[in-house]
Amino acid sequence: MKTLYALAILLSCLLPTLVFAQVPSATPLKKANAILIETTDSATVAYRNMGRLLVTEGYTIAVSNADFATISTGDKPGKHGVLQAFTVLVTPMKAGSQIILTGTFADTNMGVLSPGVGYQRIPIANSGMKGSPVQNTWASLDALAKAYPGGKVLYLIK
DSSP readout, 38-104? Predict the structure, then answer.
């Protein structure tokens, strides 16, 4: 009986994530933490275009790996003392490719320093009040996605 009860609790916790996970939306979902760009560009072209777009937007490329089609930026100062960094993953599809954008930020005004680690990194998500560091960094990620030429922008919770 205890096993059956434990199984019921486990299923009740997992079922919402199995049913609602990874459903992209054309409108920004509350608490979305990833932006998906669908493009007709090949994965190689999308990877190159995204790298160029990041540099054009003032980001430095910290890590670029063409074999795994990933790009990570260095920190870029944002509004009100926030440092933001983005990660790009390009996945080939049958027709074109998908680009997934995620990111983190550190609020330098909070003064939350971890010895030897630096500022505490917080995942970028569509949450927080308008004008807050969370919303400002989300707006930057969203603007970057919308700047990709010819891409269809979708939002998801990872």
Answer: EESS-HHHHHHHHHHHHHHTT--EEEEETTTTEEEEPPEE-GGGEEEEEEEEEEE-SSSEEEEEEEE
Delineate the domains of the chain, giving CATH numbers in brackets: 23-156 (3.30.530.50)
Compute the distance between CA of residue 14 and CA of residue 116 in angstroms, rounded to an integer: 36
Residue 123 has pLDDT above 80, yes or no: yes
CA 118/CA 122 separation, integer angstroms: 12
Question: The whole model's pTM is what?
Answer: 0.80
Return d(Cα 155, Cα 6) in angstroms, integer. 34
First to last CA, the chain: 34
